[in-house]
Each structure stands twice: as structure tokens, then as C-alpha cells.
Design brief:
Three copies of one chain form a homotrimer. Chain A has twelve helices and twelve strands. At the A-B interface, helix 2 and helix 12 of A face strand 3, strand 5 and helix 3 of B.
Amino acid sequence: MKRFVDLADFSRDELLALLELARRLERQPEPRVLAGKILGLLFFNPSLRTLASFQAAMARLGGSSFVINPGHGSWALETRRGAVMVGAAAEHVREAIPVLASYCDSLGIRVFAEGRDLGADLAETTFNSMAELTDKPLINLESALNHPCQALADWKTMDDLAVPRGGRFVLSWAWHPRALPLAVPAAALHMAALRGMEVIVLRPEGFALPAAVMERAQRAALGAGGSVRETAAREEALEGADILYVKEWGATACYGDAAGDARLRSPLTGWCVRNDWFARTAPDCRVMHCLPVRRNTAIADEVLDGARSAVQREAANRLSVQTAVLHQLLK
Amino acid sequence: MKRFVDLADFSRDELLALLELARRLERQPEPRVLAGKILGLLFFNPSLRTLASFQAAMARLGGSSFVINPGHGSWALETRRGAVMVGAAAEHVREAIPVLASYCDSLGIRVFAEGRDLGADLAETTFNSMAELTDKPLINLESALNHPCQALADWKTMDDLAVPRGGRFVLSWAWHPRALPLAVPAAALHMAALRGMEVIVLRPEGFALPAAVMERAQRAALGAGGSVRETAAREEALEGADILYVKEWGATACYGDAAGDARLRSPLTGWCVRNDWFARTAPDCRVMHCLPVRRNTAIADEVLDGARSAVQREAANRLSVQTAVLHQLLK
Amino acid sequence: MKRFVDLADFSRDELLALLELARRLERQPEPRVLAGKILGLLFFNPSLRTLASFQAAMARLGGSSFVINPGHGSWALETRRGAVMVGAAAEHVREAIPVLASYCDSLGIRVFAEGRDLGADLAETTFNSMAELTDKPLINLESALNHPCQALADWKTMDDLAVPRGGRFVLSWAWHPRALPLAVPAAALHMAALRGMEVIVLRPEGFALPAAVMERAQRAALGAGGSVRETAAREEALEGADILYVKEWGATACYGDAAGDARLRSPLTGWCVRNDWFARTAPDCRVMHCLPVRRNTAIADEVLDGARSAVQREAANRLSVQTAVLHQLLK
């Protein structure tokens, strides 16, 4: 493995082998296997799980890591090609990425969507402009439209919980004070499709996932024996659901238009997941969320503190699958 | 040992054993004893000694650590139960604490007093709301009313300096531009009482330590053969003192009232410790302060740069005693 | 070696031996030689290369490090002797430096020029006020007028590129939106002189390097068989150049006067290095810059992306030479 940037770069069998490796390393840790190896972590955006779990994963394997936050203790970085740099950015990623890569054995980059131009974000313009600057093993710590570490942890979480491969996976939009990126819903959708599940995207009007995202998931489902569809009808979607995967995201009908987004979202505060959402799901339907989650805004306390919640296991699995990814990239 | 949260959780003999372990590890380091172990450090407030010395202590024992600063590279965290999270905080500690705990073998948390409601701060409402969320070995890196790592380092410092168990320990208020928390004075008072000293709290009117803090220290003194009293009379208090332990704190007579505090404190700039404070102390009376200290505001240069100052030894002992605490928690 | 603060503290032979050690450690890493050793890194100013490469260098040698950023997660620090501390700084370096030094085996400090008083900056008043507070092995991570790690990496870069000892080294000023410190031009000038090169400082009127800086370099050149002179005539300076070392710095004719500096610099946007600067240089003339560099402001894309650019190698050599420095200080 040279890069871990997108689950779509791997066959289903390769991903299953990676999950198996994660389980093996849980049972049989290899505390010195990456002795002397260094992971560089470049965060353009805040993080809790990714920041802590990657450092922990390297330590669990005997390696080390360093963290760079542009604009916070480190120089603000320019990403646009050809920029005449008279603004706040003191350095361009065309210098910074190869330099950081020269100090480590593997580089992780987190850079969220700019949220202005859907086409640019779908094309992963910003992440790719950095990815092309190094040949070192590269890890996507969340890009505009992807979050493969989260998706793999989610896959493992469903395996751990014995959720059937063909089970019903409902990816539901939830309310948030402002527009969030599409990375997690796009990655979760694709992962569930790849896993072979019956996937339903439940979202209000105006919040449909981009056609390119849906089509990619449909292709994945086709190969894995599953299906992907979308709806705004909550009751019908939740009928018999095995997993309710909750996520907040911005209005795609007016991408990059904060006022339009706010207009569409303001009447939707009822999209906060409460116990009554589970009236017609499978009895043991579990709730997933990548975190961070706003309590009583996206998901109510009664759900997060209840037995259905799998959010802690998802987060814990971040460490587990990333340990496997680092093992594959750096061993 | 499962937690290091409050010296009161331990018997005097257990604390003496911990101090003995600290001395043993100074003489006979165990550089691989925590190989593979990870300490998570969660800082809601600034730090220099705690931040550096815990990372150093883990490294000295062969382990690793990671640092999370909510709101600075990591998500701002909500601490109130039942909050409807529409504000700045993207995540609740009810998620964040168990998640971070799942990435490490021991978790340290620093969260200062809110400084609004004395009852809530005395009850350690905020720290305890986090402490109850994990079963992992937990370390108090300074809470509303406690700082056990500092207190243990201070105890060791007095042992190092051969300050007699029954010596006179004067905890004196000092001037500061604004109200600071009660954690260090409360912890130092309790520690000196537990050590069996003759403890005098010297403070201006309006700055008496809370009754609950004084009573707790008096109970500790009773068991250890010492005593605790308070006064506003500086000359009398300093008479024959072996230790002058200096600390700034807020007016308890108007806790949470910044204007009232400022009114009480403004005439007190004379409470800056100078050489003439030692006219009637024991000849070799030493000055202690937990740091950070504002020079020529709380303590004058002539004192900090003089032979009486033990502040460097106190700070160095942070590393020493924390190494012992980590050894006990994680070995 | 007790300190690595200024190349001038070492003989030419000692520096050559250090460069040889850097090359040896590239070929034959010593991944456990600093096991158990800790490097403390204190950054008063932003950093990318220094921050990442020192952590990486310690890890490559089996050691650990911690990072303190005053004012960002750690207390703001006062540096002035005798200050009455009623402002933003909660702690004085007279406490902080010895405390941090007590937690580590070697301390690195980065503190840029204040840029107000040239005499104070030339005297390294701020850095020296901290350096005198510890006997631990000390590393200058960039001070007011020096950057020895960068200078040593630059020396190695020219060795790697087989630039002849007696080659022509042109240190050229370049445009930047505001006045930057003199540390790198002063250090690069001195290094090239020490290496025995024919050194020319090319700068507009008003931007001459301070006489003390020029004289020091001239003395170094004298001992090494090289020369140092300055000019504002670009074509003549670049004639036959082997190295064009580009750097932005503030107007010395009005040091500390932002308005005066802006007036002098505003007509100079033509000092952006483009391909046509190399019309009369040696055919294989290389471009060096310490980074960060503003693209199309100080150096054009066409140069940075072209074959002449040695900036990546310079940055990579930071890790290499610092590994040697740490090996010498801490082995």
C-alpha cells in the first residue's frame, strides 16, 4: 500500500484484509514494528479524534509523530497555484509539503472543503494539489469529499456489532447551526455501499447529496450486491433500519451560499434524532455518528446516552483501523 | 493506585511511600518501564510546567503522550449536562472524554475554576463531570480547588530542604492584577496540614479561604499532629516562619464579582513579598511559589533572585513526583 | 560541544567535522543513540521547518521532545529584566527557562528580533538574557541576528551540490510586504565567508547590512581565504555567480521605523527573482532560500519550480545537520 486516500482505491478484498489486520493487531499488538518511523501530521482544520488517535497509533507501533497546524504556531500556507503571495500566507504548500515529507516516513493531511465551488470540492482540488507534491506514503485525514479513516472505522464497527452485510443502512441528515462539509456523508455512503448494504439517504429537500456522490456509491453497491437510493420520507426510510447513521451537512441546492443555506435549514430543527425515530426500525437498530456531535441539536441526550449508541465504538475503532493502515504503509 | 485526583484520597503513609518512590526513581531511573504506554493530556487552560513535565515524565519512563487543547486546534468542548448545543462548542465532554480515554492508558485533565459560583467550584462540579466519564487511570492536572501534583511536589521540596515536619508554614496571599483561582492555596494548605506543620494562612480581609477549605485542612492537621489558623496580621504570622508559601487568589468575600474583587484588591499592592518580610522569620526561611509568578507584583526580584527562593526546586520536583505517580498508575 | 548558538563559536575544522558527522549519520543512522534523552523546544515565533525537523531529529536518534509556545496554550513570557509584571505576561523567562531546562537534556530557543533597536538586536540582548539562565546544552533555533542551524544546512547543501569553496556566492535582497529580521542574511553571509567563498551582498540603497555584520563576515573571510563586499548593482554582482542566495529583510537605514521602511521598499517590487536574473551567472548557478518564501513576490514560480532551485535540499539538510548537532550535544 502506497497511499490511504480513498477506499475506492482498494478492492473489497483488500479492505477486508485491512479490517482483518486491524483485528489481529488488537489481539496481538506489535509494539516495536515501526520503531524509528515518523508520521508527520498536517492539520489545516481542527481535530480531536484524528489528532489524538494517529499519535496514539504511531506510539502503539513504536513510532513517533509530529503535528503542524498552519497559522497556529506554524506559517499560514497558500494553496492556490500561481498566487502572488502578498497576503497572510507566508509559505506555499508547494514548498511546505515536500519539506515536511522529507522529515517523515509518512504524511497525513487534513484539509476540509472550501465550501464555495462544489465542482472544485468534488474534484478534491485542494487535497490533490498537495497530494501530488510528495511520493511518501500519504494518508487522507479528511478532505473535501472524503474521510477514509472514518469510513473504515465505521465498517469495522458494523462488523464488531454483527450488523449483516445486507442490512439496511440509513444515512440521515441532521440539523446543525451552519453548513458542514460533505466529506463524512459521502464517505459513509460509499463505505456502506461497498459493504453490500441496502443504503437509503434520508434528507430534506435541498440537501440531496451531489449526483456524482450518489452515482459513485451506486457503482460500489452494484459490485457488492447492495443498493443505494434517497428519500425525504423519514418514516418509510427508517422502516426496518439496522443502522441509523446520522450526519449534518450543508444545503447542496445552494452550495456556498450561506444565506440560502440558512433559509433552507431554519425550519428543520426537528431533524434532531430522538428515541421516537426508532418506532419502526429493527429492534436493535444502532445509531452511528462520526463525532463531534452537538447534543440536543443533531442527536438528543436520550439517544446518545442510550443503548443504541455506537458512537464510542466508532471512535475507538479509529485507533484500531489506523494502526492497521500505518502498519501496511510503513512496516 | 487507580487515580491521582486529590491527596485526601490517600493515607499519609501512602503519600510518604509515593515520595520515597520519587526519590528512588531520581537515583535509579527506569527508562523502559512504561514502554508502549500512552498518556493523554487534556488542557482547558494554559500550562507550562504541567504541559512540559508530564510529557517529559512519560518519556523518562519510556512511554509517550499526546496533548489536546480544546478550542486551539481541537474542538471547543461543552461541559454542561443537558445543554442544547447551538453555541461555540462543537462537542460535549460526554463524548470527548471516553473517546480520548480509549486512545490512551491514562488521562490527565486540567480545568480551572469557572469562578462564578463558589459552591459549584468547591464541589468540583466541572472536573467531576469529566472524571465520572472514564475508568482509566486519571490525573488531576489542576481543577477548581485542587492541584495534587503541585502539592506533592511542594511536600517533596520541603523534605529535600529538611524543613521540619512541625515547622511553621505561612501561606500568604499576594497581589495580582486580577482574581486567580483557589486551587493552589487550597492544595498547599491541605498538604502542609497533612505534613503535620503549624500552618498559618495570612491574607487581607475579604480574602479568607472558604470555610470548607479551612475545615478540611484542620481535619488533616488533627490527624498529623499539626495545626491550621488564619490571620491578617503579617508581622505576627511571619514570626519564626520556616516557609513562606506565596500565592495570589481572588476575593472570596465577593466570589465571581470582578468589580467587587477589584475594589478589595486595589489598595493591596503592598502585598508584594520583599526582603523586609523576613525580618522576624527563621533565619533560613525559604520562599515557595508554584509559578507562574509575576515579578515585582507578587514577589520582588530581590526575593526571587535571592538564596531564599525555592521556586526552581518546586518546579523541578513536579517532574520527580509525577514520574512516581505515572509509575504507580501505569506500571 | 556544550552549545550550538553561533557558527562563530567553532573553528572551521570543527564545523567541517560536524558536516562529516551529518553525512555519516545519513549513511549509518544511530536510531537508539539518544534513547531516553529529551529535547525541550521553546518557540516565541512561528516555525515549520525548525518545529518539525527538530522533533524528527530527536525521534531519528531514539529520543523525545516537547514543544512550548508562550501565549498559545502556555503562558505569555516577560523577557525584560526588572519589569513590574502587570501586563499580559504571566511569567518571566527567569523562571521559565530554568524550569524548562530542568525537564529536558537540551533546550532549543527561537526568539526573533524585536526590530526596534538595532543595537539591542545586534547584541542579541533577548536571546542572551535567556541563554545565561541555563547550563544545559542550548540550541539557537533563530535569534535576532543568527540562525546557525540554517547556516550549517546551507553549507552542507553547497557541499552536496559540489559548489566550489572559492565560488561566487551572491546574497541578494528580495521584496517582501514588510520588514523581516536580519537573522538569516547575517548567518548566511557569515557562513559563506567562513566557507571561503567570494561573497557579494546585493541590496538596494537603504538595505545595507549593519557594519558589524559585514565586518564579522570580513574577518571570517580573511581566515578562510575568501572575500566579502556589497553592491546595489545587480548585473555586475550576478556575473558568474555560482549561488544566488535570496532573502528578504528590513531597511537598515530606518531600522524600527515601519513607515520609513515601507517608503524605501515600495518602489522595489522588481526585486523578485526571475529567470532573467541568470542571464550572466554561471550556467549551473543554483538558487537558495531558507524558506518560507512568498512565491511571485520574492521569487517567481518559474525559478522555484525550475532546475536551479535548491530550496528543498536546503530544508531537507536541516534534519541532517541538526541530527549531527543533537548527536554532538547529547550523546
